[in-house]
Structure formats: C-alpha cells, structure tokens
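Z., the sequence and structure:
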Amino acid sequence: MPKREDIKSILVIGSGPIVIGQACEFDYSGAQACKVLREEGYRVVLVNSNPATIMTDPELADATYVEPITPAFVEKVIAKERPDACLPTLGGQTGLNTAVELAKSGVLERYGVELIGCDVDVIERGEDRKLFNECMADLGIEVSRAGYAYSVEDALSIADELGFPVVLRPSFTMGGAGGGIARDADELVRIVSQGLELSPAGEVLVEESIEGWKEYEMEVMRDGAGNGIIVCSIENLDPMGVHTGDSITVAPAQTLTDLEYQRMRAASLAVLERVGVATGGSNVQFAVHPETGRMVIIEMNPRVSRSSALASKATGFPIAKAAARLAVGYTLDEIVNDMTGTTPACFEPSIDYCVVKAPRFAFEKFQGADDTLTTRMKAVGEVMAVGRTFEEALGKALRSLETGRAGFGADGRGEEAALSDEELFAALSRPTAERIFLAAEALRRSMSAEELHERTAIDPFFCARMADMVAVQEALRGCALEDIDAEAFQMAKRYGLSDAELAVLTGSDERTVRACRKILGVRPAFKTVDTCAAEFPTKTAYHYKTYDADESEVAPKERPRALILGAGPNRIGQGIEFDYCCVHASYALADAGYETIMVNCNPETVSTDYDTSDMLFFEPLTYEDVMDVIDATDPDGVVVTLGGQTPLKLARALEEAGVPIMGTSPDAIDLAEDRDRFAALLDSLDIAYPRSAMASGLEEARSAAREIGYPLLVRPSYVLGGRGMGIVYDDEGLARYVAEATAVSPDHPVYLDKFLEGAVECDLDALCDGEDVYIGGILEHIEMAGIHSGDSACCLPPFSLSAKVQDEMASVARRIALALGVRGLVNIQFAVKDGVVYVIEANPRASRTVPFISKATGVPLAKLASRIMAGEKLAVLNLPEHFAKPGRYFVKEAVMPFGRFPGADALLGPEMRSTGEVMGIAESFPAAYMKTQMAIDYAEPEGGVAFISVNDQDKRAVAFIARELVRLGFSLLATEGTAAVLRASGVPCEVTGKIHEGASSVVDAIAAGEISLMINTPLGVATRDDGYELRRAAVRQGITYATTLAAAQALIAGMQAARAGELDVAPLQEL
C-alpha cells in the first residue's frame, strides 16, 4: 500500500535521559525515524528531554520540544501542535508507557490523535504476562510453566507441581521488585510473603526456573499486509539467569540446527501476528533446554529495542527507518534497502561474518554494590565487534571495552592469575563482568572445555572455541618474536590475538610486533557489511577488519579525507555527549569538502549509523586497530579531541607514528593535563588557582596537607569522570584515602588540592582559532564545589553571578586558550569564592556540556570547532555576540542510577556517577529546574511529612528552607540537632532520635511511605552512617531527596513555580 495521505503531522516520543537499560540506541532509532518521516513529507513534532541527542537538533524535526516525557507535558504539546498521529514505538519503554497512559486517560481521543505502529491492546498483550500467556496457548507455543499464587499455601502447592528451583515474580511491581529465585520451601515462604505485600494486585507468579537454559533473540519486522522477515538471530553466550543486556551475545546464532532455527523463525512470526503487531520491529526471546531441546518463549517487546540497534548495526539493515515507513502505510516490498539501493526490504539479511557484543560495566563507581549478574540489567554501555570467525570477533570485542584489557586474557593484566585453583574454579560458577577472563585463565590452567561447560553452563561450542584461542596463545608464549613466521602471525590474528597480547607473549613491545608483522606481509583486509553477503553491489562503505580474507574493499581516495575517532562504549564519565560531537564533526567536515571516515565500536550510537559519514569502520579504538584503518584510508587529518578521553589517549602515539592530527596539538593537550606544566602556565599569566601539591606516599601527603591546610580534594593523576577522587577533612581520612588510592594507579602519584568549601562552580566552553576566542556559554552549577561537574545540576545563563564575575571568567578563558594554542574547543572549570575567580582545570577538547550549550544558545559548537580544525577563522563564522537568550533559562540535571545498585551510597561527591542528563527550559530559573526534576520522574511532592537532617555547617541556613516548606504545606520531622535550630528560629517540627542509637523510626517511616520529601546533607567522608541508611531507603522508595542545601533551595523554588502554574511548553525552533 502507498503511504497514508490522511495524516499530515506526526508526534514522535523520544526515550528521555540515558539510564541503565535504556541508552542512546533510541537516539539512533528516533533520529532515523524523524529523517524518514520528513522525507515522506510529514510535519514531525518531537518530544524528548535529553539535550545530548542528535534527534533533538532543531533541524531534525519541524517542532522540537525539549520537555519532560510525562503524560501532563506531552498533553500540553498535543494541545499546542494538534498532531494527527503519534508514533510511540521508537522511544523505548518510556515512550511506550507515556503513549499508553495518554491513550487510556482519553487524551489522544479528545485531540483526535491516532496511535500508529501499534495500538494499546497490542502493547498490553506484549507486556502483561497473563494476556501474553493466553495468546501463546492459542498458538500452541510453550511458555515456561507457571501458576498465580494469592497466598503462601497457593505458592507451595504450585512449587510442588513444578519442582524447585522456581522463579517468583510479584505482579505489577517495577523492575523485578520483590521477586527472586527460591531453591527450597523456606526461601519460597520468605520471598512470597514479601511479594504478596508489594504487589498492588496481591498476586505472585510462580514460574518454573529456566536458569541455565540457552537464550536466543529474534529481531523481527512485520508490515500491515502480514509479510514478516527475520532481520537477525542473536544467541547469548551466558545462559538464562543473566539479563540479555548484561550478557556477551553473538549474531548470527551459532548453535542452532537448521530445524531449530526454522521452528524459532516460524514461532516469532506467529507471535507477532497473534499479539497483533500491525507494523514495525519487535523482538522475541526464547529459551532452549540444552539437553532436551525443549523451546519456550520468554517474552516479546512490541517496539524497537536495544537488540534492534545491535541487529541493525550487525546486519546493516536500517530497522528504525523501515519501521517508520511501515507505520505510515508502506509494505516491506515497497521499501528499498538503502544499503544495496536495489533490493527491497522484504529480503531477509544474510551475513558472511560473525558479530560479538560485549557489555561494559561500572561497578568500580559503586562501592558496596553486588557485582553478580542477574535478571536485572546493570551494564552501562556495550561494544560490538565484527570478524570472520567467533574467535576473531571475541578478541576484538574484549579489547574494545576499554577496561585495560587487550583481548582474551593473554595480556597478563588481570587479577585472575593471582587466584588459587580453588578460588578460580569456585568463582566460575558466579556470573560476573570478569567471568570471561576467569574462563580464559581456567583453560590456561588446563581445564578442559567440557569442565568449563559444566561449571558455567556456557554452550560446549563456545567453550571449545575459547579453548582453541587459549591453545594458540599458549603455543606462542615464550617464543622469540624473530622466530614467529608469517603463518604463525596469521594464525594468531585469526584467533583474535592483538599486537599488544603478542608483545606480552613474546616479551617485546607492541610497536616492534607491528613492525615485524608488516615486514612479513601479514596485513588485515577490510570487508563490507552489506546485508546480502556480497550478492549485490553496495553503495555504502561500512567496513570491518579481518585476517581471514585477502582482498580489501576500501575505495581509492579521490578527495581529501578526514578521519574522526569516536568515543567507544558508553560508560559513566563518557557518554552520548561525546558521540554527539563526533557526529556534528562528520557533518561539518563533509560540508567543508572532506570525505569523512568514522571509527567507533559502539552499536548504540548515531555515529555508527552507516549514513552518518562517508565511510564507517566498526573497529576497537586501540592503537593497532586505528593505525590499520589509517594505513588503509590514508587520511589528511585525524580528529582526536571530540570523543572524550578515548581518542586523546591515542593522540601522542598517533602523532609519533607520523599521523596528521587536526586541531589542538597533542602537546597542548598534554600541557593542560599535566598539573605541574599547567600550574606554571597559570603562574606566568598571573591567574589564581587553588593551592596544590603532589605526593607519592603517606608521609609526603601528610606534610603537604599541613602546608596547604584541610579540607583537601585528593585524586590520582590522569583520570576521566573523577574516578578515585575524594574530599578529606583530617589526617585519618587522608591515611584511608592513600591506602585505597595506590590501587588506582601504582606508577602515578596522588594530587592534593586545597578544597574550596562552599564555592560556586562554573563551566565555560569556548572556541579558539589561535587568534580569536569565542565564549560559547557559561554554566553555573547549582551544587556547591566538591560535586563532580558531570553530576551537578547547572544553569545557563548563570542565575546568581554578577556581570563583572562573568566578564572576568571570559577574559581568563581567552588568555588560557591563546596560551595553550587551542584550535577548536576548550572547556574551563572555575570556582568562585568570596568574589575571587579560581581556575580548577582546563581541557582543550569537547566537554560533556557542549551539546547542552549548543541547544541552549542555538550555536552548534562542535560543528564550528570542526570547521576551525579544517582551517576556517572565527571572524568569518558570524557568531552572535552573547550566548544568553533574553528571558529564558536552561537547566541541565544529571540522572543517577542508584536504584540499580542497592548497596551503593546515593551521595554525590567528586567522583562522577550519573549515566545521563535532562534539560529544562522556562522563563525563570526555578521553573526550568522543576521541569528537570519532573523529567527524571521525580513526581513533585504535594505535601505530607518532610524529613530534615543537616550537618553543622548547614544548620544556620536551614531555617529559611524549613520555613518555606511549612508554607508549602509540609509538616516537618527533624533529628535533634537540626530540630533545636528550627525551634530556636520559631519553626514548628517533631523530633526523632539518631538511627545508630536505635531510637529512630525514620527508615521505617520512609519504607512505609509516610515521608514525601527528604533533605539530608552529610559532612566530609561518606561513612556507612545514619545518612547512608536514610539515602538508601529514599532511593529504594523513590522519594524525592536532596543531599545539598543548594539543591533543596532550587527544589523548593521549583515547587512554588509549579504551583503558580508557570510551566508551559515551547519548541526550540521558536526560542
């Protein structure tokens, strides 16, 4: 059928901030959909609260609303824009849930908005277990056997029938709350009695356990005429029991017989039809019993998911583009596959290579959290690697993760070698982020592939492949480099060994290995990802490197080439913001006449979309892999300053290898990172900065502390995202820090800075071309100094700084940028205390605030920086004079993942822990701040009990906050010290005792939902004290809480603004 003409405008709902379980894959799918719908002539209205996305760029939609994705705000957008239809399947779970609520509450009907892509009944049949199981029973497809229990007795009788272990899932609770696996009757009684209380419906699903079964996913597309195709099959390396987002996965599925694959294929298509998915992409998950082959269906997602992004990048098939076209009435045979330009989209992709996805974790950021992998997702990012064989792809994936490992464990860098055999074999049965390296170590200690399978339940096929990889490594261990011939090199490469691993095995260094390999003529070939296994010629240059083929498919060079190094896997401290900058660079350099080349390994991003750059190389960002791409493409310049710390780490080595670096020189980058050189520069410019010293041991640290004076900010050298930082207030704290810090970087000393308690922090982003400097924006942080800039909320324009202070920052920034010789972007962090402006640090690279400032000011900083790198001057770019827009405030707030790590403390500090960000836009600062809180899903507390407990330094200022809370209708509860201050100021409140004295019931009150707002400011070292218990309880219950007075003040002002009805919506295009 041709496209629908009765629809003129379409509302697309995005997925909001990046959280664990829902990352930037929805930016990639949403951006594709917006492009396609506009190409088809529709007016596109977009709602998304995440400013660090390509999809919220004003040129992607006709009206872009950076607003909270809540039913109330989306309704305001609908009322203003009056769209004809809403496409909810590209915004993850957030977009889907919001659309369902709007449909159920009658808003869509009231405004005449039609849901396209799928309707509410379909979403419910896909998401509600009972309805889904009924659909499966109609089809005769097995689901895991189960029963519903309404009492503990019910549960015991169901368990008798099924046999232990059983999986328990309370109905309608969020994120698996109250559920678990019971291995005997005692555990069952404990979990079920809690589950029945937590479930709003008072029911618990008792399900047979399929832990240890093999897990598969099918990525399916279906159109309105009932045609269906399988885009890709994916197999999990880890068996059932580990969330698929936390498992290493392989595409295409490796261990299915053709019969099993066809059964799964037929079942997937039948499921889509029965559930009623009219059009678009869905994903269906199966479990298969390893011995009997019994197949059960686990679940289906009636929307584009994280696996869709992986399937899309793994095959080259543009799932999101096709889904958007299908939603407006096309059928699969009418859509042309972009990759080939000749075949229709109803051709199932076939692939002649193997793809491995590996998850990236961040447990080091959450001390006290359990690192066992379970059915709740904990990964913060992922990488994908492509090779001709599983071995080649696995080796690549493991070195892409940037966890300091160079491949499958032959680098000697892990802690696994220190374990005794007993510890190692015991650790293998527990799934963790490190288990893959433990497996390599066990095989190295002559464990057989069969025994590895028994201990880990990983399929024997994969165990045997890993055993082969270790065998090749061990055969080369101890060989002299000159004794390795071309054949041995070729074999090592085919089994996934990196040059860095070969260097360890042969006792030489990576560059020597590379030189030897090239002399022997062992060079990689570059093959193409083309959806059709080279059956048809392709128009797109999407390449991967392999040693399993001879001829390369890279086109000859016809015009100047610019190569952009991406940011690698998402992780805490380096997220989608850097990918945004890389994409903008690609667009700008293409406009400047370059052929653009992107190198990256993150499948969730827009940068790895095949049509973002002229050429895409899906490769790890290591010296070896990047140099191989450079050898194959011969670029005229390489961009290293936009992908965060990842490409910066390579800058020096690339420069030494004679690679032309675009923009700021590696030496200038090093000067800004090297504390002593940078301090000398600031001294010569007569610019103030906090006093500091460095120490390589405890004694040195103590004497430095006496000189500078406490409190001190201590940190290891060269870090990103504030890893391993802390604030210490006394000798005892310093001793504890130094004891832990030696583990962070043994050959690097620790730095001690005077900590400016109570100072206001600011971020400034600027462009510099070597002659002029343009100030892109100044952000004022809401939290005081001491909170990592990535975790602090901040506002543009600054809401409390005088023009004089802002001018001084601008002039300091100009002097620093010119002195460093910046060509492109520079970010400078300031602290203002008692009217003095101090420089904390300068980074001559793109910072995580660039996308936010670009959205707020309408000046695309990353694009302009790329043009400067290509040789243009600021003078000809005709930029606006000042960055602030009159009468508008833009607030950025960080999104925290504490709910996923129940053991970790929810306290903010100098170490970054947020996963993403949201933006609020309004005519006043409080209203903009309130919007960010609503966007993160903190419902605004309407009243009730507010609990206050603050440290001694905050006691003088707390009375003002308390008085405002009473005025807003809260009754107050406070700890003794705080209550005494409040009473002295005439504010009524109730008193409660301290927790560790056993006299307090605050934690119980929080658990019972009696407290609706909490203000708790701890001082100094975050110990496992009262505050920790309180914050933990607040996170568990989803109560709005503030851990700094500044945040509490902003929150109260925001609640006043919300009640005064000041929260309206406006698109970026009108600002």
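The longest helix spans residues 258-275. The radius of gyration is 29 Å.

Let me know what you think.
H.
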